[in-house]
Design a protein that fits this description.
alpha/beta, Rossmann fold, Arc Repressor Mutant, subunit A, 2 domains, 6-stranded mixed β-sheet, 5-stranded antiparallel β-sheet, 13 helices, 20% strand
């Protein structure tokens, strides 16, 4: 049976609090040995949530969101590293800063802690003043970051942060919901690597991800945000399902666009249609202008999105040439 305990600092005096108390969760299979730390946290004004196992911690996170977590690395059952990894997979809890505290001090253990999503590492026996200082700094940074990301969500955009290996470092609730709804399931790492490669190849910063009914999900590439992470913004906007038909393309322009969407080069298209590559390029200039796009990738994506909208039986991956290559 998972054991969860809640301790709260006593109220001193009668003055009403003007701000909610910050909550620190301590995850350790022997919390009694950390009584001095818990007392210090309470004396510093924190509410302390104690979990005696990784399983208990994950259970408690279903109904409470601590402002920071102090996590023991070595525990029976789920160890601290696996517990941290699972917490970081929870979209609405991934922002919580996790500080490891353990007697393990070898480089390999420290590296593993950071790889699993930890933001800091203190070696037991812990030094109270050091822990309090690190907690304060990490909670302040996490709060500023979370408020900024939530503000973007409120503005109608979802935030998606990718690390240097194209893994999801953080995603706002809105971004997570949109990706689940608009993008076909698959390997997230391979998917985002393919998307970023497609953007770099096209020189564009915007790429359609998928379409449902009259709406399309678009990814805007922002770039590096520091600490080896890159930021993208997701936007849901009305889909231009009849964009190609309303562009008044000539027959030749439509043929060039069709072959372009199939991944053919200008020379390939020229050979197929019996014209020079220069003529193909001229047709594409007209196509870009009429569709209101600037790159080959964007033009091909517009056509693919329209075909996907008109043919519901097609694979969801057809919403983007990059996605189509990823799922093929």
């Amino acid at each position: 049976m998972a054991t969860i305990e809640m301790t709260t600092a006593p109220v001193v005096g009668t003055k009403a609090r003007t701000a909610p108390q910050l909550v620190v969760q301590v995850i350790d299979d022997a919390p009694d040995a950390l009584g001095f730390l818990i007392d210090a946290l309470e004396a510093a004004g924190y509410s302390v949530l104690v979990a005696r196992s990784g399983e208990a911690a994950l259970e408690s996170l279903q109904w409470v969101t601590p402002d920071a977590i102090l996590l023991d690395a070595m525990m029976p059952g789920l160890d601290g590293f696996e517990t941290c990894r699972r917490i970081k997979q929870l979209p609405e809890r991934a922002h919580i800063p996790i500080i490891f505290m353990t007697a393990l001090s070898e480089t390999a253990h420290i590296v593993t802690a950071f790889d699993m999503g930890g933001v800091d590492y203190v070696v037991k026996p812990v030094k109270i003043d050091e822990v309090l200082a690190r907690l304060s700094a990490h909670m302040r940074n996490a709060r500023v970051s979370r408020l900024a990301r939530e503000a973007v969500d409120v503005a109608g955009l979802g935030v998606l942060m990718l690390d240097s290996q194209f893994r999801v470092a953080w995603q706002s609730p809105k971004a997570a919901a949109w990706l689940k709804e608009f993008v076909a399931p698959g390997s997230p790492v391979d998917l985002f690597k393919a998307l970023v490669s497609g953007l770099e190849a096209s020189g564009s910063t915007t790429l359609p991800l998928g379409q449902r009914g009259g709406e399309e999900l678009v990814m805007h590439w922002i770039g590096s945000s520091g600490l080896g992470e890159s930021m993208t913004l997701l936007q849901l906007r009305p889909a231009a399902a009849s964009r190609v038909r309303s562009a008044d393309l000539t027959r030749r322009e439509a043929e060039v666009l069709s072959w372009l969407a199939k991944g053919k080069t200008n020379r390939d298209i020229a050979d197929i249609l019996g014209m020079s590559p220069r003529t193909v390029n001229k047709h594409l200039e007209h196509v870009y202008a009429k569709l209101g796009v600037e790159t080959r990738t964007s033009a091909a994506a517009v056509l693919s999105l329209e075909l996907d909208y008109l043919s519901p039986s097609r694979s969801e991956a057809a919403a983007s040439p990059v996605l189509a290559r990823h799922y093929s």
